[in-house]
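One chain given next:
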Amino acid sequence: MTESIHAIILGIVQGLTEFLPVSSSAHLNIFPWIFKWEEISESFDVALHLGTLLAVCLFFFKYWIALIKGGFKKVLKKESSTEGKIFWYLVIATIPAGILSLVLDKISKKIVNGNLNIEMLMISIALIVMGVILYISDKKCKSKVDYEHISLKQAILVGISQAIAAAFPGVSRSGITITVARMLKIDRESAAKFSFLLAAPIVFAAVLVDITKFTISPAFILGVLASFVSGIIVIKFLMDYLKKGSFKIFAIYRVILGLAVIAVFAIRTFA
């Protein structure tokens, strides 16, 4: 029963934080650490990402179909469309991101070397630093480019930035892709939408790599389901919120959470 409850809580946490620029990986590490639960396995982490992958696929289902059709029409029939352009931008941007992620992930694991204290400090620093950068870039950078006019160069730069988040918990995949998009003067709503779509190929690849490690159990199913449902809710919320709102609140939250992690670490270490 306890395992199932933990799985549901972590699934909800994953769904709530995967698409917000606050780092789901940080939260999935912090929760077990704070409450002294058993540390979750890498395969279960990926399983929870399966729930949010299903969420982004379902939420944008009609658009995914349009993207795929547009992509093939661009190649086979030489028909140009926004969907066809974005489809191939997603493909091109994902390839270097995937390769760089593998390299940086190995470097990150060597730095942490299984030391939970080092990992928590890295997470707290990443939360704070990226929170400050997100705040400044969102406030200072103008919104000059909408979704339909994203260029190949912009797509590649945003795509490659995912690799840093994949390697270092606390950076946040959505956080860094949205931050880079804002630096490139892409408007908030378009930055979020492109970030969501970019997540799908990388997460899908991770699921395929770890799928043989999945242990199907009631806890597994509940965790994925909780992640899926909360993910759908958050995507809907953020897409509506960004029509008028900014990323300021998420940047502030990141800094507060990072400082809180440092405080807990200090109390446990020196108290």
Summary: The mean pLDDT is 90. Residues 2-270 form one domain. The longest helix spans residues 82-112. The chain is about 80% helix and 0% strand.
